[in-house]
Specification:
CATH architecture of the largest domain: 2-Layer Sandwich
Distance between the termini: 130 Å
Shape: elongated
CATH topology of the largest domain: Nucleotidyltransferase, domain 5
Strand content: 5-15%
Radius of gyration: 37 Å
CATH class of the largest domain: Alpha Beta
Helix content: 40-55%
Largest sheet: 5 strands, mixed
Length: 486
């Protein structure tokens, strides 16, 4: 106060050794704290004075995980006269009580990461982004790989659930994109991959996972089941990646993609932009990685199936059709996350889209009408009550047309005409164009005219042009030997 008589408050406070705010407070209230009157008490009675120690504390001790809102609702049931405004007071009081008397909580230990030591894998749900492929919602996940030291990331679109196949494919894609392998690889508990597996199958999956890591010189590890923070360096990155994808979709203006390859390219572009921000650190960490082996290892599951008389086989509760010439054959099936590769011996036959069983346990169907149309032409009435009839139609227009044919005429005529339409689509390679014509007929309220459609999509492959070949006389070839003109 003596300094204040000659110099400003800020300078006097600085010389006295305290802040300018304290100087202004003393200027307006020069009374010492020791001689100030006691602070005022409560202005209204404590609504919890009679019940907190006697009722709330026993509840908190009996059920340590009980939420404050649960305690509040129980008190309102026991004491209807309590004001609803007591909720905030109760929450503050419970928080203060737990700080003094509560149970010990789990501690998160921050880790120091070294370059080239650790790679992390996990899966994250992406269904809430509203992505559509070819007009249909895409229910999918992302396999997410990350190096915690440099921040390198890789993401791979997964169509099914968490599985060893998805992990193996995504991990190998990430390592070959990175150009090296870390010393250790950590994933989650893989509990989803082990679901519905017996003990022998579970041990086999564990052996394959260990062999996969050994192939790349990595030491495998898994965090404890249900303890997500043990994989925290990638769990927290999930949210940032999903936010980046969501922003990119908004900037793109549409979540619709023509096909799955276009969406996968979009994800690669988003992840690539994020990696460019960490380019220098990623280059430094690459020098500390193990070199990759000469080749990739298997990222599929191999199963032997037998083609039944239905010209199909069933794998993991999904019914797949194949050409009827394979009936009775045993096929070797390599099952990937999004496809099946079929082999007879060592000969690759074809690739099928991988199907998924329904969530309610019903079987799925992957049906190609081209595999069955030759038999349906001989037995068209089989279409009427075919188990997989809806999956047989390649487009919605065919299904709607069949429903219209059933409404307008007899079942026999509807089946015959529908099989003729499918045969036309196959034999004349006009599936999409024929679907457009069928939609036009439906919109106009008329049934398809087979004669008109046959003429429209002519020529028929059964009608071949007449070819006349004129043969030259053999004497004309003598001129070639003598060098003269023919």
């Amino acid at each position: 106060m003596k300094l204040r008589q000659t110099i400003p408050v800020t300078a006097a406070a600085a010389k006295a050794g305290f802040s300018a705010a304290t100087g202004y407070r003393i200027l307006h209230d020069p009374v010492l704290p020791s001689v100030r009157p006691e602070e005022r008490g409560r202005r209204r009675p404590d609504p919890l004075a009679d019940i907190f120690d006697s009722e709330v504390v026993p509840l908190l001790k009996a059920a340590p995980g009980l939420r404050p809102i649960g305690v509040y609702e129980e008190l309102m049931r026991r004491h209807p006269h309590l004001s609803p405004g007591v909720r905030r007071t109760l929450e503050r009081r419970i928080r203060a009580w737990r700080a003094v008397h509560g149970a010990e909580r789990e501690v998160i230990f921050r880790q120091t990461h070294e370059p080239g030591r650790l790679g992390l894998s996990d899966f994250t749900e992406m269904g809430d982004l509203g992505v559509r492929v070819a007009g249909c919602p895409l229910d999918h996940r992302l396999y997410h790989f990350r190096l915690p030291w440099s921040g390198f990331e890789h993401a791979h679109v997964i169509l099914g659930g968490e599985s060893y196949v998805a992990l193996a494919e995504g991990l190998q894609n990430a390592l070959w994109a990175l150009g090296g392998a870390p010393a250790d690889h950590r994933s989650d508990s893989l509990s989803a991959a082990f679901r519905n597996l017996d003990a022998e199958a579970g041990q086999d999956l564990t052996r394959r996972y260990d062999a996969l890591c050994q192939h790349y010189g990595m030491t495998p590890s898994r965090n404890n089941r249900g303890v997500a923070h043990e994989n925290g360096s990638i769990e927290s990155a999930h949210g940032h990646l999903k936010a980046a994808v969501r922003d990119a979709l908004l900037l793109r203006g549409s979540p619709d993609f023509d096909d799955l390859a276009a969406y996968r390219g979009f994800i690669d572009e988003v992840v690539g932009r994020r990696n460019r921000r960490h380019g220098p650190r990623i280059d430094l960490e690459r020098a500390a990685l193990h070199p990759l082996p000469d080749r990739r290892t298997s990222d599929f599951e191999e199963v032997i199936v037998t083609v039944t008389s239905s010209s199909a086989f069933t794998l993991r509760k999904v019914f797949y059709t194949v050409p009827s010439r394979l009936i009775g054959h045993r096929l070797r099936v390599r099952r990937y996350d999004d496809r099946l590769d079929l082999f007879v011996g060592g000969t690759h036959l074809m690739t099928l889209r991988r199907g998924r069983a329904a969530g309610n346990g019903a079987h799925g169907h992957v049906v190609d009408y081209r595999h069955l149309i030759h038999s349906l032409r001989r037995k068209p009435m089989a279409l009427l009550r075919l188990v997989y009839r809806d999956q047989l139609f390649p487009r919605d227009a065919y299904k709607r047309t069949f429903e219209r044919l059933l409404e307008a005429g007899s079942e026999k005529d509807a089946c015959r005409r529908m099989v003729d339409l499918l045969a036309m689509a196959h034999e004349r390679a006009c599936e999409a164009e024929l679907a457009e014509a069928l939609v036009a007929d439906i919109d106009a309220g008329r049934l398809p005219d087979m004669d008109v459609l046959r003429r429209r999509f002519a020529p028929s492959p059964g009608t071949l042009p007449e070819v006349v070949v004129k043969l030259a006389p053999l004497s004309a070839y003598d001129a070639l030997l003598t060098g003269g003109a023919a």
